[in-house]
Write a structure and sequence with these properties.
By secondary structure, the chain is of the alpha+beta class. It is built from 17 helices and 6 strands. The strands form 2 sheets. A 4-stranded antiparallel beta sheet has the order 3-4-6-5, with helices on one face. Strands 1-2 form a two-stranded antiparallel ribbon. The chain is globular. The two termini are 46 Å apart.
Length: 340
């Protein structure tokens, strides 16, 4: 079963966690061990990574700092709203906390959480729940603590005021020292609970937010949609097929070759793509369209050369496909002419 988090995410969370490790006395090599990242790659301002790299970094921190009982709590305090990019600014610009919560959960895949977060209400209490069922047992306390403190910090920054919690429940067993939890959340948790839950007064959801801006929230949500779509390109078997098609766009009509690269029969590849709600032909179209737009924007190639690179035997076939995708010819698209 696939994990509930997207396969790709921003590198920002790894940067925050690495700095935590450095601040607690670790060296960079220890932090990045087995992540496959160098110091130069880590410093990329807009980089993206596989989620597994961040999980490896978390494992490195947990293993290297066993005496730091509140490690996850310390990590969570570093996740300010502005560290989330367009997702954070969309929430900050929302009209109410409810709108912000709905938007935030709609684009949950753009957060750095490894728990599955949900919101429910009973009329009096609004509860944020953090499902940790997909997490490795060794990493679970750190990740749950981080995600819960991070979520509390987000709500506090949205409201621009302290956030009084009505209840706090954690599935983990009570640690020897509970004072760091009281300091982090403002009240003593109930440990060994049935679920991980933060409770707050339901009325807070309808409080007007001080930075509401409908135009900005709309623009940021469009960015969120684009980023999430890009991340989803890498998920599942369909994501692996897209990557292979991108590597050899001129051979994209050969399903047998792609299946062989994946050590599958073409029949199995077809069936598994159907299970994911896709097909080889649909993936061909997605990749061809993306590459066509990129090559037309870059310039320097004739339409015949672009068609050849995309695996079309005839220019007319490329033009027909492009008109189906964009409603105009590739030449008019490249010149920026409006669609008639």
């Amino acid at each position: 079963m696939s994990p509930p988090w997207p396969a790709r995410r921003s590198i920002t969370s790894m940067q925050l966690l690495t700095q935590l490790g450095l601040d607690l006395g670790l060296d960079l090599d220890t932090c990045l061990r087995d992540t496959g990242l160098s110091a130069v790659q880590l410093a990329a301002p807009h980089g993206e990574i596989d989620a597994g790299r961040e999980l490896q970094l978390i494992a490195n921190l947990v293993q290297a700092l066993p005496a730091v009982a509140d490690l996850g709590l310390q990590a969570g305090r570093r996740y300010h709203l502005t560290s989330y990019g367009a997702w954070g600014y969309a929430m900050l610009s929302s009209a109410t906390a409810r709108q912000a919560a709905e938007l935030g959960l709609r684009y949950h895949g753009l957060t750095y959480a490894f728990t599955r977060i949900s919101l429910d209400e009973d009329g009096v209490t609004a509860s944020l729940r953090f499902d940790d069922g997909a997490l490795d047992e060794e990493l679970r306390p750190f990740i749950v603590q981080r995600d819960m403190v991070g979520a509390q910090l987000i709500v506090r920054e949205l409201l621009g005021a302290p956030l009084p919690l009505t209840c706090l429940e954690l599935r983990q067993q009570a640690p020897a020292e509970t004072a760091p939890f009281v300091e982090a959340f403002g009240l003593a948790p109930h440990f060994a609970a049935a679920a991980n839950r933060i409770g707050l007064a339901a009325g807070l959801l309808d409080v007007a937010l001080p930075r509401a801006n409908s135009q900005l929230v709309s623009a940021c949500e469009q960015q969120c949609q684009a980023i999430l779509t890009r991340h989803q390109w890498h998920q599942g078997l369909a994501g692996r097929v897209r990557q292979l098609l991108l590597q050899a766009p001129g051979q994209m009509s050969d399903m047998e070759r792609v299946a062989a690269r994946l050590h599958l029969s073409s029949r199995t590849l077809r069936r598994r793509l159907i299970d994911e709600g896709s097909s080889f032909r649909a993936l061909q179209d997605e990749v061809r369209q993306a590459l066509a737009e990129e090559l037309l924007a870059a310039g320097g190639l004739s339409l015949e050369e672009i068609a050849e690179r995309l695996g079309y035997g005839e220019l007319s076939n490329f033009i027909h496909a492009f008109k189906r995708w964009k409603g105009t010819t590739p030449g008019r698209y490249q010149r920026g002419e409006p669609i008639s």
